[in-house]
Design a protein that fits this description.
Blueprint lengths: L4 E4 L2 H5 L4 H9 L6 E4 L7 H6 L10 H6 L1 H16 L6 E4 L15 E3 L5 H4 L6 H22 L1
Parallel strand pairs: 1-2, 1-3, 3-4
């Protein structure tokens, strides 16, 4: 029986320099004893840099990253899309809630981890736009996942 190939996207590593969710992924991935890949080329995420889990990551000076951050993160997205269109079969474990990958995964399954419900539980600490965006993204991904299971 073939060992599963798990693909992690760049979302949380694009959003966080450090934080609970990116740390979670960098802690759990090496402990799972699976074949995996992380679709990140450019990141200042401290856990990703320290772990050396990401074979595609290209180290660049911080000042260059900061100056070209938006372009580099767009390149991460394009790289993720390229890997998602890959002809090999994989299981995608999306690292956050943006549903962009639904357009690219074809028949490959995906896992979404809802790390917390902070926007829903403590809405007074977030803008209405952020709350609605988070809620809609989670809802879309979970509905699609349920649909695929039926």
């Amino acid at each position: 029986m073939n060992q599963p190939y798990i693909l992690y996207d760049s979302q949380i590593f694009d959003y966080q320099i450090f934080g609970g969710i990116s740390r979670y992924f960098c802690e759990i991935i090496p402990r799972m004893n699976i074949t995996f890949d992380i679709s990140v080329r450019y990141s200042e995420n401290i856990y990703l840099k320290e772990s050396k889990l990401c074979k595609h990551r290209l180290p660049i000076p911080k000042w260059i990253f900061n100056k070209y951050k938006n372009k580099l993160l767009q390149k991460n997205r394009k790289f993720s899309e390229h890997m998602l269109r890959s002809s090999s079969e994989y299981l995608l474990h999306a690292t956050y809630y943006e549903p962009y990958f639904l357009d690219w995964i074809g028949n490959n399954p995906y896992v979404i981890t809802v790390h917390d419900m902070i926007y829903e539980k403590l809405p007074e600490f977030f803008s209405k736009e952020d709350r609605e965006l988070s809620f809609e993204q989670k809802k879309k991904l979970l509905r699609k996942r349920i649909e695929l299971l039926q």
